[in-house]
Amino acid sequence: PRMLGFQAAGAAPIVRGEVVPEPQTVATAIRIGNPASWEKAVNALEESEGKIDVVTDEEILSAYQKVARSEGLFVEPASAAAIAGVIKLAEDKFFPPAAKVVCIMTGHGLKDPDTTLKTCKLQPRVVSAQESAVLAILKELNVL
Questions:
Q1: Which DSSP letter does residue 138 get?
Q2: In the chain, domain spans
């Protein structure tokens, strides 16, 4: 398999080839300006003839929302960076037509609830810990 990696544009030391003193990105888990495993990442990419690229915060947030809407997955922005990168490469026709692409997303959305609150159109609602109350809200929102 070819290893692909994606760094946020504001925190992309491997892509830039230099330490980023003040990394900035909405994807807090990958807001790293000098990765401890830099050499290992580069070796994995070279050995697999892979690629590392950047994705913008806008691309990350778009993928974050898309994977929630289309797949029902609640991931953190750092995990959405992988999806954003795959979408970007697919749009650039990087993958052969019959290619199988696996995207590993390990970060749950509850690791970074602030991003959800900032990007979600719904406001959080407090619901009692009763099954009937939860079901009522889900029905009201046309989820059930």
A1: H
A2: 4-118
Distance (Å, rounded) from C-alpha 10 to C-alpha 77? 14
Cβ atoms of residues 57 and 10 within 8 Å:
yes
Backbone angles phi, psi at 121, to 5 degrees: -80, -15
Integer-rounded Cα Rg, in Å, for the chain is 18
Q: How far apart are the first and last CA of the chain?
A: 40
Fold of 4-118: Rossmann fold (3.40.50)
Question: Which pair of structure tokens corresponds to residue 100?
Answer: 């199988």
Distance from C-alpha of 111 to C-alpha of 78, rounded to nearest angstrom: 10
- At 23-68, the pLDDT tens digits run 999 999 999 999 999 999 999 999 999 999 999 999 999 999 999 9
Q: What token pair was written down for 128?
A: 């009692």
